[in-house]
Amino acid sequence: MSDKTKPSAQWEGDAVARRLRQATKPGRPSAVQVFLNDEISASDLPEKAKQIVTDMSASLNLPADAIKLGKVFRSAKSFSVSTDIPDVFDALAKCGDVKSILESEQPDILPKPTNVKDA
User: Fold this and answer.
1) How many structural domains is the chain composed of?
2) R_g over Cα of the chain
3) Domain that holds residue 53
4) Cβ distance 13 to 93 under 8 Å?
5) Quick check: 84 and 24 in contact, CB under 8 A?
6) CA–CA separation, 64 vs 69, rounded Å?
7) What is residue 86's predicted lDDT score, i.e. its pLDDT?
8) What pTM was estimated for this model as a whole?
9) Domain contains 113
10) Which residues partner with 68 through β-bridges?
11) What are the pLDDT digits (tens) for 3-51?
């Protein structure tokens, strides 16, 4: 994304974290895709993802298994995280190494047919 292109308000980190906070309950985890800043090289991505998850756990005083690190995607400079603790998403959105976050589960985005007649 170029410097001139800004995401719409619904895709900014705070808005995504707010939606995840509403959807996440104890025992009902949510997953998020975390995109890192361009300065982080793809080869450093796995270690950086582990470091971010470890730092989040420590800063929020969470047990070691409260945040689960998922797949790491080097080409997208991203990794997935799942947790049932809503505060994690707020912390991720504010993390300096994080460019943006996005819910892993998206609502149906396909267009709906209009002017449909009964057969």
Assistant:
1) 1
2) 16
3) 27-103
4) yes
5) yes
6) 11
7) 84
8) 0.75
9) no
10) 82
11) 566 667 777 777 777 787 777 778 888 888 889 888 888 888 899 889 9
In a domain, residue 35? The reply is yes
End-to-end CA distance of the chain: 46
CA distance 24 to 87: 10
109 pLDDT above the threshold of 70: no
The rounded distance, in Å, linking the Cα atoms of 17 and 86 is 8
Q: Please report the DSSP string for 26-74 in residue order.
A: TTB-EEEEEEEPTTS-GGGHHHHHHHHHHHHHHHTT--TTSEEEEEEET
Phi, psi of 58 (to 5 degrees): -70, -45
On whether residue 112 sits in a domain, the answer given is no
Contact 30, 85 (CB under 8 A): no
Asked if the structure places residue 63 within a domain, the reply is yes
| CATH number of residue 33's parent domain | 3.30.70.1510
Which of 41, 23, 9 shows the shortest CA–CA distance to 85?
23
Q: Evaluate whether 40 touches 113 at the Cβ level (below 8 Å).
A: no
